[in-house]
Amino acid sequence: FFPGEMHVRHSHTPAFTYVLSGGKNQIVDAAGTRVVARETGANSVGPAVPWHETTNVGDTTLVFLVVEMKYKK
Fold first, then answer.
1. N or C: which end of the chain has fewer CB within 10 A?
2. pLDDT tens for residues 22-40?
3. Alpha-carbon dihedral 21, 27, 31, 32, rounded to 10 degrees
4. Cα dihedral 19/23/28/31 (nearest 10)
């Protein structure tokens, strides 16, 4: 995501996320609107996301690797 770029409303299955290049993004979802700083190298495993939108509100390019877990053990 280049500065100012937005990823419109979408959803995810449970996923592993790794931040390749960090910065600040604004997230809009059912919980409201918030700005989150993402550190390069940060990672997480999260549940399904019914919907959200994200916008790069910083001055760096944000790069994420998202691996969706579309299977059950």
1. C
2. 999 999 999 999 999 999 9
3. 150
4. 70
